[in-house]
Amino acid sequence: MLSSGKLPQFEVALAQSGGYKLALYNAEIAHLWFHQAPDASGSNFFFKGPILYSYGFHSPLARLVVKPNHPPRLVLIRDSGGSQSTRIHLGLARQAIPGYVRVIEVGFPGAKTVGEHKGNYRRMRSGLLPLGLAVIGARSRKQERFSEYLSLVEDMNHYTKEFKLGFRQVPLPDAEGVGGMYQVEAAKVTRALQRKRAVFARELSGWLAGGAQAIRPPNRFAHLRIKPGEPETVETSMGATVPLAHVVKAWQIIKRCYRSGVGFEPEGKGRSIHLGYYTVDQVEEGGTIHIGCHSITKAEVLRFVETIGLT
User: Fold this and answer.
1) pTM passes above 0.85
2) What phi and psi, each to the nearest 5 degrees, are found at residue 236?
3) 63 φ, ψ to 5°?
4) What is the pLDDT of residue 20?
5) Which end of the chain is more exposed for a tag (fewer CB within 10 A), N or C?
6) Mean pLDDT over each residue of the chain, to the nearest integer
7) Distance between CA atoms of 77 and 60, rounded to whole angstroms?
């Protein structure tokens, strides 16, 4: 691959005159796109005029909003990456954009018609509710969530003004104002979560009493029991099973972690905790155990070992 800085002068002139398309490394593609060099392509990453693409013309990744005789001051960039390689392309695009340029995330950066721009605006507006609820529910990161909310409002206002969409400017509230705007929605979410937890509590009670069906908790934490009809097998609420003998052996190591307040992570041969086909990935200092897709709280571990008489 050749970069434009390494091309002989006559080849640069040929490329600039449209004689051929430069073929470059992907990291260079994004920078050339922002500076509007001749159209160029890399590995499934290319640009034509102000639009940067990932894989094909069907997939615009970012667009420079350029006014005649002015440097770019606005970039529309896709709000989600899709495949891993497209997410990498997105990262390269962001790295190429100087800090003084406003970047607005949209669903379709290749928008040209008023209808397409309005679709982008409505997609942005749909993000206000979850962000507003996040501001209300935040504890340690309330200011960060509020900043995200304000940033989205500012982007929406700039977008409708830039493309003359006719939507009213959204006022910029303070954090308490956001709370007031979404109180009704927050109450609905709270009631729905309470109902979901109540349903799960009933399901969990039935499962612990011997119910046959695996259950999914409203959070990511699993529960434990002796499998009905198989007294030497431990079963999780997500349907995984391991030998009880392995659990008893593992408990001796986990118990030491709990008593010392020190976590555990496997470090080579002889430092692994095996449970059937599974291996413990981590015991956190706070006591939560991670095993593949399972996370089990310290409280649940202590409940279970007490139930089966382990000390």
Assistant:
1) no
2) -100, 160
3) -140, 130
4) 41
5) C
6) 83
7) 9
pLDDT per residue as tens digits for the range 189-229: 677 778 888 888 888 889 898 887 777 777 778 899 999 99
* Separation between Cα atoms, residue 235 and residue 7, nearest integer Å: 65
Does residue 4 have a pLDDT over 90?
Answer: no
Q: For residues 78 and 105, give the distance between their C-alpha atoms in angstroms, rounded to a whole number.
A: 6
CA distance 79 to 90: 9
Query: In terms of pLDDT, which residue wins out, 162 or 80?
Result: 162
